[in-house]
Amino acid sequence: MSNRAALLEALRARALRIRRDTWRALHAAGSGHMGGSLSAADLLAALYFHYLRLRPDEPDWPERDRFVLSKGHANAALGAVLAQAGFVEDRFVDSFYAYESPFGMHPDIKVPGVEMCTGALGHGLSIGLGMALGARLREQDWRTVVMLGDGELQEGSNWEAAMAAAHLAPLRLTAILDYNKVQQSGHVAEMLGLEPLADKWRAFGWSVRDCDGHDMGAIVDALDALPAAPDGPALLIAHTVKGKGARFAEDTYLWHNNAVSEEVYEKALAELGGSAE
Amino acid sequence: MSQPRQDNGAAPAWVKAAADQSRLAFGLAVTELGKRDERVVAVSADTLDLIGLRGFIEHAPARVIDVGIAEQNAMGVAAGLATTGMRPFVCGYAPFITARSMEQIRNEVAYADQRVVIGAAASGVSLAVSGGTHHALEDLALMRSLPNMTVIVPADAHEAWHATLATDAIEGPVYLRLGGRVPERAVMPTDGPFRLGRATRLADGADVTVIACGALVAPALDAAAALAIQGIGARVLNMSTVKPLDEEAILAAAEETRGIVTAEEHHLTGGLGGAVAELLAVRRPTPMRMVGMPDEFACVGPTDRIRARYGMSAQHIADACLELTG
What we know:
Chain A is an alpha/beta fold. Chain A is about 40% helix and about 15% strand.
């Protein structure tokens, strides 16, 4: 097997485990945001186990790349990937929504590996821009990656940040859009459509590239193609499926955030090719 | 007891440059901190001259980041910068940098407990003829309600300079409420020091206490002088740190004088008067009067006339004191 084939296979295994642990966290909590966590799983696997330069045993390593989960309601998947990467212990996954747990519905900066409290939508890109500016002012070469949700692009603050990032470039700043096309109350196109989305970002001064957000080869290629040196800001529009990996939950707002019974949990794991045991 | 000193031409450069404008003293102090520490960075929302940041730009252009008229982004950028070890000072108009970016302040500044200093110029009714859209009369209520937030209201340019320098030692977020282009009479010494969380006693008196902040400290002193002629002794406390409150000074005033009048250029709900009342209601119920903006929006007009019309003048403070001592 070629190095690339081996890499992709390893990343797919990582993504599968993120999905399984996402369901595990939601099951422990009794409910949660499965839709937007599962759509982001392949992207998170490629980021944490291929692209981002991190030291899980030294989470505050000053030169680390910065990752901001602006769509903070996908925190179950973030917790799953942080546990898998070794920032937190595996049992952290089971503490989702637990009393006094730092692993609540949304990311908390107190958790090792979490760079900012997010989840109120439309905040992450400004925060990431600040981090990228910090790198430049401190003459460091860390990269900042912000994962955006599609629904949150309806918040105007994103566009303030998008305009400012292009104006203040060159920077090492990338945004990845988990474009799963579904938000809390329905399909994005029906609620408040975003298209033509790539054109909007280009008009704001960003370079834009599309990829299939569940095709690991395409994700890796897109990440590897990001500028190595400070440049204009880049957006990767990753086309994804809400609830990916659990057919009953795919492409529907009904599984944006829902209860997770034993039955649902077993069904979800079975679809991923395993069981709770 | 502190009294303003005569400068006799020997005043430091910042005194001359800031004159009677706390917003400019803040900008100069940020510039001074920026010269001492390369981590200091100003994030401005099209407020370079409102705050007086041209000197900082001259010194270190890369460390003055103006994001345009976009307060939400300014606050998020500042929080992001703070996580990297930079020391951001966000500069904006008080009515906009608070209400417009309140969620960013709450989440990534206060909740995430980042070291971000917010310099909010043109507070109160200093943007007088701009009308109610541009008055900031609820900002103290907003900022005071946030955990981790320190809230400072300098009484004049002198105190603004020292308070801004003093933020260097504060680990968490800070809200600094500054004046506008309206002249601010000097009431504090040029040489400081600023003592965080400590009221400054500017006048002594055994009958009644006026606890004031910001633009109403000078009228409070005028009121005390007028009351003295009538044989009434008014203690005047400059409560420039609204949070954390100097509880000791307030409780002492409650014990040692017959009542307390609070005075601020802010709505009567949620500001300094509210903070003092919350403390006294629980710890030592005391007769109080509160001088400030009533529950309405101010009309257009010169700042001094608005202050007088809505009950925020020296006369109103003196009358409130007489109610308590009469």
